[in-house]
Amino acid sequence: MNKTKLITGIVLFAMTLVITVSSCFYGNEINNDVKLTEDKVKALQSVNADIITKSVNQVSKLSTNVLNTNTAATNNLLADTSEEPIVIESNDSIKITKKKSKSSKSKKKKKKKSKKTAKNKRKKKKSKYIKVGTFKVTGYCSCARCCGKSTGITASGTVATAGRTIAADTSQFSFGSKVVINGHTYTVEDRGGAIRGNRIDIFFSSHSKALDWGVRYCDVYVKR
Question: Which one of 46-55, 104-113, 195-204 scores highest in mean pLDDT?
């Protein structure tokens, strides 16, 4: 609105100035040369009218350009803020305040809850096991070279089974204890003369598989 008022004032001032100059010029011409013909006067008036028309047209074009730029700027501003609700305060200057939508708040709450639940799950998973220490872990089978007998019966009276049976020091682990080695859960069902302290023997279905295992040092965990 301020720009429109300014442009209108400029137009009126230009028209007044042109009319004043033309009237002065016309009066001087009459005083200096009384013999000026009516044709020359009409030509002079037409020229002045053309000048006034051109100036008015230029000012009107300028005003339309300014209005077009203002409308384009407001449209862009509305397009940028259309995604979120806005509040327009009726002051001298327009203030646009963005409001956070309820959906974004709910999403943030859900993310926080999911993070908390994930942390709690991790804590629970970790709390299921207790690290006993690092043990020397070897392999054995039910042959006479490994056990001195080939019956396959453990010291606890169970049948040795690959993937389940291990021999351990019963002063540390009682029969039936669940022991986790490399993420796999075994059951203490056997013992041996050489299995003392931080030493565990894993049962395998064949002597070759026991040899393939060899000697390894692993972290040993027990379930609570």
Answer: 195-204
